[in-house]
Design a protein that fits this description.
Elements lengths: L2 E9 L4 E3 H4 L7 H8 L3 E3 L7 H16 L6 E7 L9 H9 L5 E5 L5 H12 L7 E9 L9 H4 L4 E10 L5 E8 L7 E3 L5 E3 L1 H22 L9 E4 L4 H11 L10 H4 L6 H11 L8 E8 L3 E8 L7
Parallel strand pairs: 4-5, 4-6, 11-12
Antiparallel strand pairs: 1-7, 2-3, 6-7, 8-13, 9-10, 12-13
């Protein structure tokens, strides 16, 4: 069965927190943050908004975009690092949508979570009832950040993005490249009762090395070339990482979607939010070739080679 993306939806909190606002409580400045990260602002969810609220809103928008109903959904997979221990975020989303017939579960792969969830859903789609699957990346990173720690508080934001995948006339999900190296688990982690802790220097070195590597590997798996790629959507962790990877790959900046200035690092939500930005720019048409590439705690990494198939669902 040929599978592609047939619907896309996102959710962003209304509250926009600028670097200048953070500078009122932290020893930092807009210039300091922008120079080191490329971040200018981030969206922060209200205290009474849960990650499940963001995930559900994005999922419903993706369903509407696909012209489908919950009866068409046989699987819901959520990539998140900020959901509750149990039940899973996906279970709550299933209940709120009324998708009674859908199998639902979460995947924890940090900032690589959306790619892991996408590959998992694609591989399972032929074995579940219902023709389509919802794949969601959703995070409320503000709930796990130590807002007194300048090294991490400036980096993260909240949001969610979702896609519906299902049968398409053309193959849309062409290739995946996933991986994990638990030897780096100590570089970026969160204990049960503690905030995020990160060795920024080592994570940066890992990301600059791994991002171009997985882009090249997934392109090779798809029997394609860098020149054929229309759009690269990298995980939005740090603009310097994105720029360094593009320089190594010799990918022109105009092919790269960057949202970190307004979204900051939204972990598993980063890539689907950037996918919506590409659509808003009018750059997603049937046949557009994209590479999605993420990396995160674990250490984990994942890339997907996609041909845009929105509008071709059967």
């Amino acid at each position: 069965m040929k599978i592609g993306i047939v619907g896309l939806g996102t959710s962003l909190p209304s509250r926009r927190v600028t670097n200048d606002e953070l500078a009122t409580t932290l020893d930092t400045s807009d210039e300091w943050i922008r120079t080191r990260t490329g971040i200018g602002a981030r969206r922060i969810a209200a205290d009474d908004v849960d990650v499940t609220d963001l995930a559900t809103e994005a999922a419903q928008k993706a369903l509407d975009d696909a012209g489908l109903t919950v009866e068409d959904i046989g699987l819901i997979v959520v990539g998140t690092a900020t959901g509750r221990a149990f039940p899973s975020t996906a279970c709550i989303v299933q209940e709120r949508l009324g998708a009674r017939g859908a199998t639902a579960f979460d995947i924890s792969a940090a900032c690589s979570g959306f790619i892991f969830a996408l590959q998992t859903a694609a591989s399972m789609l032929t074995t579940v009832e219902g023709k389509h699957a919802l794949v969601i990346g959703a995070e409320k990173m503000s709930s796990i950040v130590d807002w007194s720690d300048r090294s991490t508080a400036i980096l993260f934001g909240d949001g969610a993005g979702a896609v519906v995948i299902g049968p398409t006339e053309q193959a849309g999900l062409n290739a995946f490249e996933l991986g994990t190296d638990g030897r780096g688990a100590h570089l970026l982690f969160k204990d049960i009762d503690g905030p995020i802790e990160m060795n920024g220097r080592e994570v940066f070195k890992f990301a600059v090395r791994k991002l171009p590597e997985i882009v090249e590997k997934v392109i090779q798996k798809a029997d394609s070339t860098l020149e054929e790629i229309d759009i690269l959507i990298p995980h939005q962790a740090n603009l310097r990482i994105i720029d360094a990877a593009c320089e190594r790959l010799h990918i022109p900046q105009e092919k790269v979607i960057v949202t970190i200035d307004e979204h900051a690092n939204t972990s598993a939500a980063s890539i689907p939010l950037a996918l919506e930005e590409a659509r808003q720019q009018g750059r997603l048409t049937p046949g557009t070739k994209l590479v999605l590439a993420g990396f995160g705690a674990g250490l984990t990494w994942g890339a997907a080679y996609i041909t845009w198939t929105k509008g071709e669902n059967t």
